[in-house]
Records
---
Amino acid sequence: EAGVAQSPRYKIIEKRQSVAFWCNPISGHATLYWYQQILGQGPKLLIQFQNNGVVDDSQLPKDRFSAERLKGVDSTLKIQPAKLEDSAVYLCASSPAPRNGGYTFGSGTRLTVV
Amino acid sequence: QQPVQSPQAVILREGEDAVINCSSSKALYSVHWYRQKHGEAPVFLMILLKGGEQKGHDKISASFNEKKQQSSLYLTASQLSYSGTYFCGTEFGHSGAGSYQLTFGKGTKLSVIP
């Protein structure tokens, strides 16, 4: 079974620039999550999708972050404009719904804002 | 509400045992445990549902004390491959807002040395 695919693996941008991350979940997994992991901390949920609908985006900084999951499959997370504090690893995870086990995480995108 | 993990870090020699604790101030539906190696995605270890069950996975097992809202991860006869950061993720319910959503602790860094 193919895992959760994410790209790019690394990204370096200047503050105030924009950036986009892509995620392709495991085939058939209805639920998709974007997490932000700052160095030395646990992952923090940004947004949760079920199929192509948003379940929870209460912790997404909507003035600069946006995400979509068209057709209920792959997803894109965008930051515009980026700030220095957005430097982190952005992890995508998926699970079947209803979930009967854990999440499967992708390898993440390491973003550095300079 | 973020669960609290303890200890923050632990160093073991091969063959020694360790216990990592995860506690919540809010009633839990389930607790997940993940291990993350440096630069890699978190990997699911096990899930415990309310009911106080204990699960095992090779020489790694966990328990869930519903009364104390606490879970413990037990690593016995540690191996070098056990090194990494262990995260607990807590889930509060399976209906309504926040369903199927994990909140992760800050992690416990485990180092196993020869």
---
Amino acid sequence: DAMVIQNPRYQVTQFGKPVTLSCSQTLNHNVMYWYQQKSSQAPKLLFHYYDKDFNNEADTPDNFQSRRPNTSFCFLDIRSPGLGDAAMYLCATSIMGKNTEAFFGQGTRLTVV
Amino acid sequence: AQSVAQPEDQVNVAEGNPLTVKCTYSVSGNPYLFWYVQYPNRGLQFLLKYITGDNLVKGSYGFEAEFNKSQTSFHLKKPSALVSDSALYFCAVRRPGGSQGNLIFGKGTKLSVKP
């Protein structure tokens, strides 16, 4: 089935050690998003790509970066994870210009030790 | 500014009873409204959306929602709750000019359905 896949499901990283989270999609959607969801809070948009155009939210820390090498893949890089970056990270996709809903992956739960 | 409010942190319902999860919104222009459900340690699953048209929107798993423009509400409903409906429910609004995944979420409502 077409879907949004996030790897890994659970990631443990050391304080200050760079970490990369991965998202792939088989939907051929032109927009991909990264959301951060801390415990008991609403998901918060970090940034999104429309094709190759990167759109950063104004309050996303510089510590968070993203890459989209092709339509199918998008990566979230955290350059120096802090304890406050522990969260669920959700990838989503959608089609620009269509009224279809966004599709979310299962999420990656990041623990910082 | 666009915003979504879910006034209840938790809703408790007995199995078989009707359920309502409340959502109000504040938007400029026509609202694009969504409901998503999240099970523990999982991503978000789409339930239903209102873009335009009929105010009563039917979605997945027997859920429906009523768009009320005068009350700026988009409450989620189900006639008969199941224990398996227990989860975290998020109401969301699309940002103006944004794509369908560019969403502002409410803080979520935890639904607990007891046998």
